[in-house]
Amino acid sequence: MYFITFEGCDGSGKTTQVSLLTNHLQSRGLKCVTTKEPGGTPLAQEIRSLLLKSEIKDPITEFALLSAARRDHITNLIQPSLVQGITVICDRFFDSSLVYQGLKKGLDLDFMFDIHKKVVGALEPSLTFLLDLAPEIIIERLQRSANREINHYDAQPVSFHKSIREGFLLLAEKFSSRIVVINADQPIENIAKEIFEKFSMLTKT
């Protein structure tokens, strides 16, 4: 079983690629479950609604809520699925917290790693796909998207999305053995093919 995560700015195509990878693996007989953060369980979904309703300025408060949602998510969905041999594919995980509350809002990263280890445990993704996209394209996509969940991040200027992108790329350098950077400014089927190939390499190791 594998724990696969997708990261990137809003509008980078994570939801689409999560669905395509899931369908691809299921067509090959692999049991999969898809989920997202914050969310995935009733309690975590309630916390998600609170977090996305309006911005929580204090990064410690925000991270504490995310950590509570993440623990419930892992305890009641992710870990039980992995124990049963089911591959879990998750839209966002701890990397997003490191970028948004850590690198963007200034929360100490060592503090975040310590809390994460104590509250959530040692679970780490087998592989993370970072869908990388220029902030100008992100803004265009968000403005013309009619079906996505609207939140307070959508109204942020290009500079915000630029800093988020830079944060994810910094993490990709630090955790290069786990995080695979995918150019998201290409046809959907090309992105999916690249993801399929990278996942196949994981299963052969």
From TrEMBL:
Q: Which GO terms describe its biological process?
A: dTDP biosynthetic process; dTTP biosynthetic process; dUDP biosynthetic process
Q: What is the main EC category here?
A: transferase
* Catalytic activity field: dTMP + ATP = dTDP + ADP
Sorted alphabetically, which InterPro entries does this protein's record hold?
Answer: P-loop_NTPase, Thymidylate_kin-like_dom, Thymidylate_kin_CS, Thymidylate_kinase
Has UniProt tagged this entry with the keyword Kinase?
Answer: yes
Where does it sit, as one GO cellular component term? cytosol
Identify the EC number(s): 2.7.4.9
Which keywords has UniProt assigned to this entry?
ATP-binding, Kinase, Nucleotide biosynthesis, Nucleotide-binding, Transferase
Molecular function GO terms recorded:
ATP binding; dTMP kinase activity
Which residues are noted in the entry as ATP-binding?
8-15
Limits of the Thymidylate kinase-like domain: 6-195
Tell me the protein family, please: Belongs to the thymidylate kinase family.
Q: What does this protein do?
A: Phosphorylation of dTMP to form dTDP in both de novo and salvage pathways of dTTP synthesis.
Q: What is the recorded name of this protein? A: Thymidylate kinase
Identify the gene encoding this protein: tmk
